[in-house]
Amino acid sequence: MITARAAATFDPVGRSVATARAFVRDTLQGWGYTDVVDDAVVLTSELVTNAVVHAGTTADVLCLRTEEGVRVEVSDHYPEREIPLQTTGLDFGSPDREGGRGLLLCAALASRWGVEYSPTHKHVWFQLDLPDRPVGIRSAGPLLPVGLLPVTDERVRVAVVQIDSAGSIAAWNDDASYLFGHTAEQVTGKQFTDFTAWPQTPGTNTGIADALRLSRWEGSYGIRAADGRTIQVYGSHLRVRDTGGEPSTVCLLVRDYERAVLQSPVRTPVSDANTESRTTDPFEVFIGSPAPDDLDGLLQRTVERARDMLDADAAFLLLATDDETELEVRATTGLPSARQRFARVPVEAGTGRYGSARMPAVHEDLDAVPGAVPLLGDTGMRSVVTVPLKVEGRLTGSLGVAAEAAGRYSNEEALRLQFAADRIALAVESARLGELERLRRGSLSFLVEASDLLAGTLDRDQTLALMAQMTVPTLATWCAVYTIADQSSDPFLSYVLHEDEELIDGLKALLSKISPPDPVPTPGARIWSAPSEAAHEAALRTSMRSIGLGDPGALGAGIRTTLATAAAVGGETVVLPLVARNRVIGMLTLGKPSDDHFRQEILELAEDLSRRAALALDNARLYSERMAISQSLQRSLLPPGLPDVPNVEIEVIYRAAGEGNEVGGDFYDVFPIRDGAYGFAIGDVCGTGPEAAAVTGLARHALRLLAREGFGGPAVLERLNAAILDEGARSRFLTLLYGELWPQEDGSALLKVVCAGHPLPLRLRQDGSVEAAAEPQPLLGVIEDLELYEQTVTLDPGDVLLCVTDGVTERREGTRMLGDDGLADVLANCTGLTAGAVAARILRAVERFAAEPASDDMAILAMRVPEPQATP
């Protein structure tokens, strides 16, 4: 049953692909179908690309919501398509080629899909089913001996926070103030999301807004404390209604390592005496039923059951990387999980069986062998047993338990733990592969969006900002971009961003005081310890200066900023080179808060992003350099300025068509020839852009030289015509209006004008009449033997002479054109205006004539003889 629908049509242009992705993403998120958003966006991107880019037609996208999931349909309008005959199989082609992967992705990602053909349409649809996610499961755990109960550091504090229907904090108890440092008055009425640090791994987890809307939810996230630290908490959310019937959410929060206070234990099924033991699943015996449906929940349940099984003080579980050379900490209990999560240790830590994670190992006293288990350094644990997790003989992880007393474990406990590890290894590996697949799908969607954004700009500063904004907070807590101008330059700190805007200035100041990372071209992320060390040293110096001040709240703003910056930068920092065209052009630096580490999947995604970002940044650099050179050369073709002509007002307005062009095929000039005589010209070279601009430079300089040599108007233009023809294949025909101006003692102005194929100059008299001030003659650059003549025009006081290029008269809106008559009508309404006001009114009329930007160059030259001032 279809419960909602949304449809849109996209034009056959490249930007429509990004618009279609945004349409599908916004639609599905609005429906609450966040679980399938990434897959739907990837499939839509491919199918719309096929329609608007390859088929070259509009694309119709229809989203249908059902109770089971979502169906997306994409249609093109390719005319006279041959309908394929039905065959026994469908050839998808090579998956490595650039095009034609839409159906291949449908087969890989969609629950169901299909193609329907007609002579004028190709209709592709795919169905994505929603995963089953039980909500609101409640259960009770068994009785445990007192010795097995979790140990807390002090009195357990449970923060109670109530969130209203708008997501604002409505209640905040004393324990919340104690744990996080914010008073109730400081947070009441503010958005709860302003204080949460939610997991941002692409393709995994739901958002905090989604969690607050569920009837019941449990899980881990972070709360930003008043001192800038992020405190990991375990939360239990319950959706309720207040006395007015409005929905709200009650959140109970404890420190993450005290999660047992809130975490709902899973009820173990009561055994049936009549059920044979062979029907019992060993996995469910160890984990409990139902098993968590997410990897983090499964791993956390595993370490807690392992700890209880061997009466341990702590337990930990590590997963192997793809190359099986390192193990990554994914779950702990009884250990500072915030510090250890995603930390890495080598699989082969030393010689012998006790140095390899591939074999079970028992350490009776870690004090006797310091460093034997790096994960347990400085934790107070003395004895430990570790066993491998293996699937079909391949190492997939390691499970360990530890105790504070020495000599607690022997080979017997190792066998029991190995038996449990064998029971859960396959389930853990299956959940890990599922998470990896979701991560890869999310990463693909992330990179598609990132590539689209980076390709959409050639501005260097905007590219730097996009690089940082795409990484924070999705990949890292903070980001810094260093750029290198050339091989002889040192790296320069160009952009800094932190997920907390209040920490950006402190972070920038800290990074400015330390030497930048070395520009090593080796691909991949490498650890950079300098920011963390500098932050810790600054925090230490600040703490020493603050001794004796009493209440930490009395610390100055500078000291609080230093401490907050130290907490924000105190975790792992990695540097990725930005390499483009075999040259290191900068470094992308990513950082985590105190004692936090990066996952390998995130680093691989960041490396992929850095390659795309480096090419976009280098393209922006090249574009900026070429634009600067082009504009400098173009400015050299413009007249240096307009001379002051006695008793004559002169105004010029020039607009070159095309982005970044300051000079095109149209040109103008006004220059002194000799005492009392001035030359003026306005012309139009065939075409626009740099090629036409080269001819304008030739024409303008030739006019000045010939006029100052004493040649009259016809002789000047005839010699310019010969110079243009001498250019051979590079020559272009030219329309030109050239004249000489002599201001007269009686207040008038005498003009001698030659109009060589150019729009005729228009004369506006004081009575509002408009007439042509010259006759048309042949244009330049076409025939060799020209016979031109000049005409004399006298401008009386109050008269205006208007000269324009055909970009003005040929301004179009559909089939309409401004034309000579339209220009004359506009000029007739300009009586009494100054030359500048006349030129401005003509330009305004041209711009308003059509909605689209002008596609041709335009030049407007207005000359006016002012009326004499009345004497009092």
From TrEMBL:
Keywords: Hydrolase. Residues 154-191 form the PAS domain. InterPro entries: Bact_Sigma-Reg (IPR052016), GAF (IPR003018), HATPase_dom (IPR003594), PAS (IPR000014), PAS_fold (IPR013767), PPM-type_phosphatase-like_dom (IPR001932). CDD domains: HATPase_RsbW-like, PAS. The keyword Hydrolase applies. The keyword Hydrolase applies. This is SpoIIE family protein phosphatase. It comes from Streptomyces poriferorum. The lineage of its organism: Bacteria, Bacillati, Actinomycetota, Actinomycetes, Kitasatosporales.
